[in-house]
Amino acid sequence: MRAIGIHEYGGLDRVQLIEVDEPTAADGEVVIDVRSAALNHLDVWVRNGRPGPGLPMPHILGSDAAGVITAVGEGVPRSRLGEEVVITPGLSCRRCEACIRGEHSECESFGIIGANRPGTFAERVAVPAYCAHPKPRALSFDQAAALPVAYLTSWRMLLSRAKLRPGESVLVHGVGGGVALAALQIAKLIGALVIVTSSSEEKLAKARALGADHSIDYGASPDVAGAVRELTDGRGVDVVVDTVGAATWPIDLSVVRKGGRVVLCGVTTGAEAPTDLRTVYWRQLSLLGSTFGNDEEFRLLLNATESAGLRPVIDSTYDIEDAADAMERMEAGKQFGKLVLRVPH
């Protein structure tokens, strides 16, 4: 079958359309006919050779996907055949203390489809049955594929980790990327005031159309901290959502209010940032890390697509053979929303 993969780590030129063997469903697994798959920055990190054990080559990229179950392994009800599903790509043992508590992303063996096993950029993919959730009827395959990594990550950041409440204020850095846009939409869904930043006025205008209350162009006005303090009358925001890392960390600590929360899920600009610990204890800040999400959070997220009309923002769609073009657009930061690959059948 056709797939998008790599034979070795490296740059964009390593991404190729390859022929691989058809997947089979092991015990507790299902095979899914992929209809749509979505890109994440994780795909770039895997392609470049993320820290950890090397992967068997060739390796199929991709974590997000939606499609139809076409085969089931031992222990999976045959009634699932033909079910339209969306994949949540988190992998866990389902037996340890964290998994029993329902905190699957805290499992010591936690991994992600596409990073720890063959990914979803293929005509078909085999995954553990627990990864295949019923696709909401209200969503197309494209929309469903755009949900898992970005929207589940944002859901956990805001609602489970930062415990955002209606009426609170949120700063979202770099609106346009998947997690940042999801944070804007989820925060507005529950009634928060949202400030977004970008160096693109076009992206800021689109964000305002999605409900952003205030926008800051850090290209034209690089003093983001000063702008946030002015917008909040010197108080600061209740919550900062950070997917950026080193470049925005000093801003986070200077704009969050006393007793506020900073929640971090990524380090696209670097993993090391100096921190004045006096600021943390004197201002009584909560600095929160967040990784992916669990089954219950994903269930609630899927419910929100039907009960509250939450829809992922899609920047553009590509045929699967044009995956390298989509990845190039993502790496250049040109997108506003998710980039989706379509797999014809």
Explain this structure.
With 345 residues, this protein is an alpha/beta fold. The chain has 2 domains: 2-147 and 312-342, Medium-chain alcohol dehydrogenases, catalytic domain (Quinone Oxidoreductase, Chain A, domain 1), CATH 3.90.180; 151-289, Rossmann fold. It is built from 11 helices and 18 strands. It has helices at 41-48, 97-100, 141-145, 148-161, 178-189, 201-209, 224-231, 249-255, 277-282, 295-307, 323-331; strands at 2-6, 16-19, 29-38, 59-60, 64-72, 84-87, 90-91, 111-112, 124-128, 132-134, 169-172, 193-198, 214-217, 237-242, 256-264, 286-289, 314-319, 338-342. Strands 3, 5, 6, 9, 10, 17 and 18 form a 7-stranded mixed beta sheet that branches. Strand 17 (314-319), helix 11 (323-331) and strand 18 (338-342) form a beta-alpha-beta unit. Helix 7 (224-231) packs parallel to helix 8. The chain is globular and about 60 Å long. The model has no long low-confidence stretch (mean pLDDT 96).
Number of strands: 18
The ordered string of helix (H) and strand (E) elements is EEEHEEEEHEEEHHEHEHEHEHEHEHEHE
For the CA atoms, what is the radius of gyration?
20 Å
User: In percent, how much strand structure appears in the residues?
Assistant: 25-35%
CATH superfamily of the largest domain: Medium-chain alcohol dehydrogenases, catalytic domain
The fold-level CATH name of the largest domain is: Quinone Oxidoreductase, Chain A, domain 1
Please summarize the sheet with the most strands.
7 strands, mixed
Please estimate the helix content: 25-40%
Using the alpha-carbon principal axes, give the shape: globular
